[in-house]
Amino acid sequence: MVELDPIRLELNSYDEPLAEMRDSLDLVVKEKRIEELNREMEDPRLWDAPDEAQKKMKTLAALKEDVNGYQQLISDRDDIRDMIAMTDEEPDPDMIPEIQAMYEGFKARFESIRMKTLLSGEYDSCNAIVTLHAGTGGTEAMDWTNMLYRMYTRWADAHHFTVEVLDILDGDEAGLKSVTFQVNGENAYGLLKSEHGVHRLVRISPFNANGKRQTSFSACEVMPDIEEDLDIEIDPKDIRIDTYRSSGAGGQHINKTSSAIRITHFPTGIVVTCQNERSQFQNKDKAFQELKIKLYMLKKEANAEKLDDIRGKVTEIAWGNQIRSYFLQPYQLIKDLRTGEEQPNAQKVLDGDIDPFINAYLKWTALGNTDTTDKTGTR
């Protein structure tokens, strides 16, 4: 049928990209690894080392997701072709909407898997540790930081990721001065690394009695949560450990004990904090883990310039350093200054729909582009 000709032609154009996707996913190797892991799972001694067993199960699940996802994509393509052929033989106008819906679903799944092939960085599969800092703008900037925190937690919920707050510092009047949280889920770091940088908000400030338009800034730092024990030695003389009372919700325990931990590393100026755990010991352990990750990155990159690829340049959280601008007045528009991606529905983005910006960033970096001046590595 004529109405199906555009779908027929577009579907044919996917044959070569699907073959390239198969090679990018390295499915032959993954299928062999699945067979190996399935044999290992049959060994009753596997659970003698539960941590190692859990890692293998997680690896197996990820491999199966890649293989099954691609196989389903091929099956969907073939099913659509069969439906089109059947409609050609026996025209039925009622079948056209169903075929169109199937094709739209195929395109969405293809794009989702294609994005995954771009997550090939060494740490992309890790959980993400995200820190937001209020910058220029006073109370308005603190409120903006809270809005960003809400945006990222909404995004995490939509992707079935879990969020664990590590440290939080409330604003003087409203919002947040800073917050550090961990996003747990497959490829969390690979996806959220696109958010690393200064975010600029332009709106009519609710904290300004004159109703004037105001610009404020907040910095987002994203680091991978590297789970393995890192071979990093920290000289006790190079750090200062401070304890203080946690500022977030947590009941009587939070209010009565100084269980929160702040570690300052003098040689690098790195400061890490943790207050979410129930004991000072647990907070210290988590803070040291975060410090080790940051120092490991420094050691791995060997020099500060190469570190920009992972944690970004250290820049002021103010005008001229932003990666993305959020305009709420006099018009609504959110624009990424690196990729050029724009979204006119600001509220939808602030409610957590940041996937268009993430996907644009992954495509942009896949073409060899890198951030040079628009990041921040606030310490």
Give an account of the 3D structure.
This protein is of the alpha+beta class and 379 residues long. It folds into two domains: 2-117, Methane Monooxygenase Hydroxylase, Chain G, domain 1, CATH 1.20.58.410; 125-379, 2-Layer Sandwich (Alpha-Beta Plaits). 46% of the residues lie in helices and 20% in strands. The protein has twelve helices and eleven strands. The strands form two sheets. It has an eight-stranded mixed β-sheet with strand order 2-3-1-5-4-9-10-11, with helices on both faces. A three-stranded antiparallel β-sheet has the order 6-7-8, with helices on one face. Strand 7 (260-265) and strand 8 (270-274) form a beta hairpin.
CATH class of the largest domain: Alpha Beta
Largest sheet: 8 strands, mixed
How much helical structure, as a percent, in the residues?
40-55%
CATH architectural name of the largest domain:
2-Layer Sandwich
What structural class do you assign from the helix and strand content? Answer: alpha+beta
Strand content: 15-25%
Q: Number of domains in the coordinates?
A: 2
Rg, alpha carbons: 24 Å
Strand order of the largest sheet: 2-3-1-5-4-9-10-11
Say what the CATH topology of the largest domain is: Alpha-Beta Plaits
Order of helices and strands, N to C? HHHHHEHEEHEEEHEEHHEEEHH
Could you name the ranges where pLDDT drops below 50 across 5 or more consecutive residues? 249-256, 373-379
Mean pLDDT: 85
How many strand elements?
Answer: 11
Shape: flat
| Span between termini | 62 Å
Continuous helix count: 12
